[in-house]
């Protein structure tokens, strides 16, 4: 790939250790600089997260940073709908003026920001949260409306913390629900392999036969969306045999009796009928858990929250974790302690609850627990169907016109805004609708703190490159805040490096220490079973099998199992079941299709289907299939997978492809989890038709 080299590296020749923040793994990397230009990226051996390894996208960061199509100049949409290049100062001035005018006209809460996955879930996200509250708008929107916060809510309700820090290395049994770490979290693999070598048993629960499922001692293939029934069946098995953590449950549990009574109906036969998993496999899973109890990891992936029964499914799995002794145990799911850094957000100082954050009345938990406005509701508000209109939006590090469900509706909503600003590295389907596109700084051009709750570890990344005319995220929000008159009070720091110093001050760790230890440092030794000395961080301080808080909101107190949408609404018109979003190594959502060496590995969007279904449709490998849902329709070439990979009647499309290839033209924004508002992105009922010959068919 031909590189356009620009910007000045902080050194001329040598190697700079830092952190890759292209995805949330945040691997330690060594950036090799030659003649002022980044030449090579390799893994940092001393970093506990990746221990020297990299995924294919890690080294490809060089190709992103110097990509010939990278945006280097602000763009402004003209009357003809095309873009003109304008100077950065002019862009910032005009955006500031237009925000002020929209705030005057519609009220400041009509202004929102939307954060994507590319900027992460920590420091970069706190800048727009701070900015909006200082401005007077509570409307922070983000990818968190469809990634991880349902799991977070579920685990917070049950045990007070999300179990995102599985201690694979010390586990005797590892339960993985709907996750394929060799592809999505490759840094999990080293500790999982180590545990397996020491005799730990691996159980994978996934309707597809995946790379991790093929390494498992036991692979259960429930029908999508039925994991809740399986979790209740396993709870029943443990309760009835008396093989559960009785001391934990009796001392620290609340609502156990009600849960045990409810579990009673989940006999092996009933669970087998609900999930399609053979009874002997459920029995074997129960035995492996009993053998591994007190040292069992119980980890849940994203696909379970992409169902409309997601929160309760994950709550049921969390309850199972309490019975097997996973809570805050070595070899289980430790409860991470925080670094104690300062908070950038203003939720205590300027809560703005009187301003009615969008979605708060429908999904109060999303806001209560995570201060997150629901993006599906926000799209409606942009279309004039909310409690009040949203009129201006600033998007950073995301491509929602591709990645949110029902993209046609997202595009319509974004097109009708009075102001859409998008900060990006490249032109995307979202920038196409913008009034202003601002070139953004990549992770190589930012300096931020990275906290790894797993190891209670903190690292600080370095700004390696400075490209003239490009503001990093902090500087962007700082300059807007100053333009709007509240910069001195709320954005007083000159640079992100100054922010880092301020954030770290109460921790006793200095930026200099972190510069001296680029791999980072442990901030607190990991301790276990802390619930013996301090209450769990739930509302009652107990491990909550039943939630009074949910009951008060009109939901069942127990994490009851409800059949997934497609089973409750069986339709002759949509007889196949679409799973979307199985990750591919080469891509992150809509990113990296423009990197030739990654694109070659996976050149096009496709629909994966079982050989029997392909035969019934009369479709051969590579031939086009029309896929239709209640929402829309796309045409994609078929990729016929091995007989074992997908169950008959089930198809898979990975998200992130543009236009016709985009599975989010099929997904629904209105079939949502009643507790979190998360949309149904997987288990979508669809119809398939061969485009040439073949014709319609049912499985
Ligand atoms: N159907 C279906 N849809 C899904 C999913 C699914 O499983 N199925 N998964 C969902 C999940 S879990 C997630 S997290 C979302 C992700 O959805 P998004 O948050 O929209 O993520 P990306 O598509 O990766 O978009 C990131 C954008 O940020 C830009 N970018 C990259 N680096 C930077 C940077 O440093 N600064 C700035 N300002 N911009 C940058 C990239 O060029 C890219 O256009 O997708 C969701 N959508
Ligand atoms: N290479 C790469 N890595 C990524 C990403 C990426 O886009 N590319 N995205 C990152 C992000 S933001 C996220 S959120 C994570 C997601 O990563 P994970 O949470 O690990 O999820 P996946 O690896 O996509 O695996 C989801 C699996 O769930 C299965 N599944 C679908 N429906 C069900 C169901 O109802 N029950 C069960 N038990 N299984 C089901 C699917 O078959 C699939 O194999 O990956 C992260 N890592
Ligand atoms: S997994 Fe890959 S892209 Fe993600 S942080 Fe690590 S090297 Fe970077
Ligand atoms: Mo995600």
Briefly characterize the structure.
By secondary structure, the protein is α/β, with parallel strands linked by helices. The protein has 26 helices and 29 strands.
What is the mean pLDDT?
96
Distance between the termini: 44 Å
Kindly report the spatial arrangement of strands forming the biggest sheet. Answer: 6-5-16-15-14-7-8
DSSP strand (E) fraction? Answer: 15-25%
Q: What is the number of E strands?
A: 29
- Cofactors and ligands: ligand MGD, iron/sulfur cluster, molybdenum atom
| Residue share in helix | 25-40%
Rough outline: globular
Helix run count: 26
**Alpha-carbon Rg, integer:** 25 Å
Q: Tell me, what is the CATH class of the domain at 164-334?
A: Alpha Beta
**Can you say what the CATH homologous superfamily of the domain at 164-334 is?**
Dimethylsulfoxide Reductase, domain 2
Describe the structure.
The protein is an alpha/beta fold and 699 residues long. Among the domains are: 167 residues, Rossmann fold (3-Layer(aba) Sandwich); 171 residues, Dimethylsulfoxide Reductase, domain 2, CATH 3.40.228.10; 126 residues, Beta Barrel (Barwin-like endoglucanases), CATH 2.40.40. It is 30% helix and 18% strand. It contains 26 helices and 29 strands. It has a 7-stranded mixed β-sheet with strand order 6-5-16-15-14-7-8, covered by helices on one side. A 6-stranded mixed β-sheet has the order 23-25-24-29-22-26. Helix 5 crosses helix 15. The longest helix is centred in the N-terminal third of the chain and has 19 residues. The chain starts with 7 loop residues before the first strand and ends in a 9-residue tail after the last strand. The C terminus is likely disordered. Bound molecules: ligand MGD (2 copies), iron/sulfur cluster and molybdenum atom. The site of one ligand MGD has 36 residues, from helix 17 and strand 15.
